[in-house]
Amino acid sequence: YNSKNFKSQKAINKTKLQEQLGLPVDKNKYMIAIISRLTDQKGLDLVNYAIERIVDEFTQFVLIGTGDSRYENMFRHYQWKYPDRVSANILYSDDLAHKLYAAADTMLMPSLFEPCGLTQLISLRYGTVPIVRETGGLKDTVEPYNVFSGTGTGFSFANYNGDEMLNAINYSKKVYYDDRAEWDKLVKRGMEKDFSWSSSAKQYEGMYNWMINW
Q: Is the pTM of this model over 0.90?
């Protein structure tokens, strides 16, 4: 799919993935994804703090990743507790990751620190809205949604705090369910962002020309 037909095609990907993972098949569920190494850096203690309030009756939470055993077991526990809302895939699978990028509504990245981050860039291309903490490369590449100016490519929160993260998630859900036209514009803006080296090279060229002529 592309920025013109994602509204219908992304829903198909969602229902196919729900079926594959054994989740209730419902295109109207709000699907939050995490694709990550399971380490302290990735803000997973914030997820543990808030997950009981994240996975409400409208929400599905899908994880793909491996790492520290305590985080692996944490997500296994929540899948056991909420089998119709949480899918914990403790593995590495490029194929499954691409299916999740193509199916999910949002990608959660509440990192403690993140020098660059590729997951949010891939998410934007797939029309999967990033929810990020404002740190490092996440802050540099995800513009917070602004309802008044009609700008932004994702949702963000500043402090390393579980309640702030939850507020950002809940705000994203509100826009998704209550103002779908604005949500679709948000997705489209993200899909049309250009983070390729062609764009970066032009910025470097402009900077060098400015330095030469300074």
A: yes
